[in-house]
Amino acid sequence: MKPATGPAGERPTGRREPQRDLRQDQQRDERDGQEDVREAVREAVQDAVRYDVTADAAAGRTTPRGASLVHPLPIGRKNRFARGYNRDAREARMALEGAMARVLTVAGAQLGPIQRSDTKAQCVARMIELMRRAKARGAQLVVFPELALTTFFPRWLIEDEAELDAYYEREVPNADTIALFDESRRLGVGFYLGYAELVEEGGRKRRFNTSILVDTSGTIVGKYRKVHLPGHADYRPHLPFQHLEKRYFEPGDLGFPVWRTMGGVMGMAICNDRRWPETYRVMGLKGVELVMLGFNTPAMNRDGGEAHYLRVHHSNLVMSAGAYQNGTWVVGVAKAGREEGVDMTGSSIIVAPSGEIVAQSCTLGDELIVADCDFDQCQFNKTTVFDFAAHRRIEHYGIITAQTGATPPP
Ligand code: CDT
Predict the structure, then answer these.
(1) Where are the alpha helices (DSSP H) in 249-387?
(2) Is the predicted pLDDT of residue 58 greater than 60, yes or no?
């Protein structure tokens, strides 16, 4: 039998104590070193946070046009040194933690109104301008609204097929949108883009309300097709404007996929999807850490009964709830202002996994909101009150997928 050998092929000598001591010393040094780094991170980031908070207070900071709100309250357990949306804190943390940091700086690029006469190239030029400004503010990902290349055309009955088709994209990128992809690649900034999609399958035209996710190399990593289509398919002449999404689009057929990219688990939704808890929960069950969604919400409810402020309240409410109940960041980006005579709500927001709004638009025009999204902040909810594996009771949830409408008792 071959004799056992020690390190470097030497026979065991029975005098291995010094080597074990050496290993233990090395391990202790490593532990101490890691603790030193952690302590340095804590101190550096606390300093950065203290500095910003003090500066904000001294300046009596309100919210300048386009600036991100800095929330004064703690956000989750890691707030002390994460405060993901604090730039100095993020940079200090990233410098010290290097590749370990899971912080993505995300911009919501709200668009003011797009009129019928505006060309797609003009819309893309506005988006490129916003993308450049986002890059200057450190953003690595920009979220644009739903149907960002055109006016919100479902407000009209369009019977001429060629006229209708002109609102759709048969492929992306194409001649109108390639400049956005080029700029994304040049700047190293990813983006979410909403647009109307037309595909021909088996000699049949299929239309979807679609969004794509493009990574920082300008490459498409995912596509989503809007599942919850609001409104109606029939023309309703008594209404001040139509909402013909059920006429112009099929319900999405891709489900709610998520993608591991840009340091996190990313998902997409579109406008009305944000009002349905199932949207977030399906992605929550796939571990989503950042939900991007664009929207076009009229400031007025055509059926009456809701003031502009209430529309904004509901929009903020559902996104905050979705974020909190699934421990995920939510970036909701609006089309805003008076578009073809119809006022749109605006109020783009970025919501932390705690459910707190950390950035909010304050105009009805083209405007950026920016936040540093620390994906590690998602862990608190995901491992405590919303630890799905520990607490969900699926034996009672079957009705959710077995029926759509409510059935009250007789
Ligand atoms: N685009 C979109 O989905 N808008 C709806 C408004 C519906 S009003 C019939 C929304 O939920 O905001």
Answers:
(1) 277-284, 308-326, 378-383
(2) no
Average pLDDT over the chain reads: 84
Ligand 1, from 228, 243, 275, 302: best to mutate by most atoms within 8 Å of Cβ?
Answer: 243
What's phi and psi for 46, nearest 5 deg?
-60, -40
Which domains, from first to last, does the chain contain? 29-93 (no CATH), 102-399 (3.60.110.10)
Q: What is the pLDDT of residue 194?
A: 99
- CB neighbours of 169 closer than 8 A, spacing ≥ 6? 149, 176, 177, 195, 196, 197, 198
Q: Are 252 and 227 in contact (CB under 8 A)?
A: yes
Instruction: Provide the token pair at 33.
Output: 């070193």
pLDDT band at residue 15 under the 50/70/90 scheme: very low
Residue with tokens 């730039």: 87
Average pLDDT over residues 15-35: 54
For the chain, state the CA radius of gyration: 25
pLDDT for position 304: 76
pLDDT at position 305: 76
How much is the average pLDDT of 206-224? 98
CB 229 within 8 A of CB 249: yes
Pocket of ligand 1 (CB under 6 A): 146, 230-231, 243, 271-272, 275, 295-297
* Among 135, 226, 335, 382, the one annotated catalytic: 226
Rounded CA-CA distance 236/168 in Å is 23
The Cα–Cα gap between 229 and 243 comes to: 10
DSSP 8-state class, residue 360? E
pTM of the model: 0.79
